[in-house]
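Running this now, will post back.
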Amino acid sequence: MMGCGSSMETTAPPNSSGLQQQQNGPTKNIVQQYVRLDEQISKLEGTCPGPRMATAEAWIEHLQAKRDDMLGLDGALPSEQTQLLEDDPLRVQAGEGGPRGNEIVANTPTRDLAQLAYNLGIIGDARKASMHEDFFANLSESALYLLSIRYYSELLEHTKQRLKTLMESYAELNELYVDQDGIIAYISGGTYMTRLEESIDAQLETARDTRDKLGSALEQWRICGLLLRAAANSSTQALKQWQQLARVIDPKQKLQYALDCRSLLHASMISLEAAQLALPHVELKYMSHRQVLAVKHCNVYLITDIANKQRYEHTSRVFTSYEANMSKTCTWLYETFNKTLRQDFDKAEVTVSRLAKTLRQHREEIFGAVDK
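Update: finished.
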């Protein structure tokens, strides 16, 4: 199909009020309107709303499946449990897909956990901490598992907002296509007026196809990059919390720092996990599965490791290494992206822009010479 409406077939008539049709033939205003529309289309097409929208839709399906699998359910949580999850992730039973802790573990809210840890004296007494470490590890596993569901739910909602924005841009682009195809049909009757016009339009369609495929991949890298940046930021905040904890004397305050640190680290690891899901064919440099497992282990035993100096120092080393490598991974991804896909996309977009401009100028010339 000729014209710019490559992503939407239409033979819609021109907007009579906008085109100001006259029996004497196309006026200069109509040709100028074609040029303005084509420039708008080229600019909006460069953001690849259609291909990016398809990627975002696939990502939403992926996230939805991941969250449902974690819930161990076919659908979402009952509404009352969803509200409890929002209020306190420790109060909800984990379901079949979750860790099989006992009822005390699954129903102990975070505020009671803090009081319990304080009452048992585990924050400042290594012997007492050792006695209760398995119990508190179970509490942590339940809390972190449910926190994972909450984080994936938030990520899902965020992506739905992104999709909404892309859908609006895509709808706007299709409206422009309809308007422009109407102008072209009115002036030329829907046929190519010169062989050159036909040749440039064919080249432009091929170039657009290449650019759009790269645009789809661009959205995948964008998702991964944003998630890695979030993972790196959370790991840095978590490490600061953990280091400050050593200087705090009050047991309750120490515990609060530890719980904040645990949540931040878990958020970082969920962001990292999601980043890997978003870009499965790219192996993230500097970040090993073994290192992530080490951080997860430390996070589970975080509360009872505070009182043990050797364990605290070991956890500090694990967190410090993770934070440094997380930062390196994030930097590496953006550098790799800028050296590869970004350059390929920019080259493809330059080709599309050049061909679109050539076609626009040629049509401006031949349309202006038409006497209908």
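Residues 1-24, 75-107 have pLDDT under 50 and may be disordered. More later if anyone needs it.
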